[in-house]
Amino acid sequence: YRIYFNAWTQPSRLSAHDDQLVIPDSWINVLYAKARYYMWQFKESPQQAAFAMQEYEEGLKKMRRSLIESTPDYISDDRLRYI
To answer: Which pairs with CB-CB distance under 8 Å and at least 24 residues apart come from 5-12?
Structure first.
Protein backbone atom coordinates (compact mmCIF):
# COMPACT_ATOMS: atom_id res chain seq x y z
CA TYR A 1 0.00 0.00 0.00
CA ARG A 2 1.02 3.55 -0.60
CA ILE A 3 0.32 5.94 2.23
CA TYR A 4 0.38 9.72 1.89
CA PHE A 5 0.42 12.04 4.90
CA ASN A 6 1.24 15.62 5.77
CA ALA A 7 2.96 16.69 8.98
CA TRP A 8 3.49 20.08 10.59
CA THR A 9 5.78 21.20 13.35
CA GLN A 10 5.34 24.07 15.73
CA PRO A 11 8.36 26.36 15.32
CA SER A 12 9.90 27.95 18.37
CA ARG A 13 10.69 31.63 18.69
CA LEU A 14 14.10 32.84 17.59
CA SER A 15 15.83 33.92 20.78
CA ALA A 16 19.56 33.17 20.53
CA HIS A 17 22.09 34.44 18.01
CA ASP A 18 22.61 30.94 16.55
CA ASP A 19 18.93 29.92 16.14
CA GLN A 20 18.00 28.52 12.75
CA LEU A 21 14.93 29.28 10.66
CA VAL A 22 12.50 26.40 10.25
CA ILE A 23 11.42 27.61 6.82
CA PRO A 24 13.13 25.81 3.92
CA ASP A 25 15.40 27.85 1.67
CA SER A 26 13.07 27.38 -1.28
CA TRP A 27 10.37 29.50 0.44
CA ILE A 28 12.56 32.33 1.76
CA ASN A 29 11.70 34.37 -1.35
CA VAL A 30 8.09 34.56 -0.18
CA LEU A 31 9.21 36.14 3.10
CA TYR A 32 11.44 38.57 1.22
CA ALA A 33 8.53 39.59 -1.03
CA LYS A 34 6.38 40.44 2.01
CA ALA A 35 9.27 42.36 3.58
CA ARG A 36 9.72 44.32 0.33
CA TYR A 37 5.99 45.08 0.36
CA TYR A 38 6.26 46.69 3.80
CA MET A 39 9.47 48.50 2.84
CA TRP A 40 7.87 50.04 -0.27
CA GLN A 41 4.83 51.08 1.78
CA PHE A 42 7.17 52.76 4.26
CA LYS A 43 8.94 54.57 1.40
CA GLU A 44 5.54 55.58 -0.02
CA SER A 45 5.90 53.84 -3.37
CA PRO A 46 2.50 52.23 -4.00
CA GLN A 47 3.38 50.80 -7.43
CA GLN A 48 6.45 48.94 -6.13
CA ALA A 49 4.44 47.82 -3.09
CA ALA A 50 1.77 46.40 -5.39
CA PHE A 51 4.41 44.47 -7.37
CA ALA A 52 5.86 43.03 -4.16
CA MET A 53 2.39 42.06 -2.89
CA GLN A 54 1.61 40.32 -6.17
CA GLU A 55 4.88 38.37 -5.94
CA TYR A 56 4.05 37.45 -2.33
CA GLU A 57 0.56 36.19 -3.21
CA GLU A 58 1.90 34.10 -6.11
CA GLY A 59 4.48 32.60 -3.76
CA LEU A 60 1.77 31.72 -1.24
CA LYS A 61 -0.23 30.00 -3.98
CA LYS A 62 2.82 27.94 -4.96
CA MET A 63 3.41 27.01 -1.32
CA ARG A 64 -0.20 25.97 -0.89
CA ARG A 65 -0.12 23.83 -4.04
CA SER A 66 3.06 22.03 -3.09
CA LEU A 67 2.60 21.74 0.68
CA ILE A 68 -1.09 21.59 1.51
CA GLU A 69 -2.94 20.50 -1.60
CA SER A 70 -0.57 17.67 -2.48
CA THR A 71 -3.16 14.91 -2.34
CA PRO A 72 -2.94 12.13 -4.91
CA ASP A 73 -5.26 12.34 -7.93
CA TYR A 74 -6.07 8.65 -7.83
CA ILE A 75 -5.47 5.56 -5.75
CA SER A 76 -4.38 2.31 -7.37
CA ASP A 77 -4.09 -1.19 -6.05
CA ASP A 78 -1.06 -3.24 -7.07
CA ARG A 79 -2.26 -6.53 -5.59
CA LEU A 80 -2.96 -9.48 -7.86
CA ARG A 81 -6.12 -11.50 -7.47
CA TYR A 82 -5.78 -15.26 -7.90
CA ILE A 83 -8.87 -17.37 -8.42
So the answer is: 6/67, 6/68, 6/70
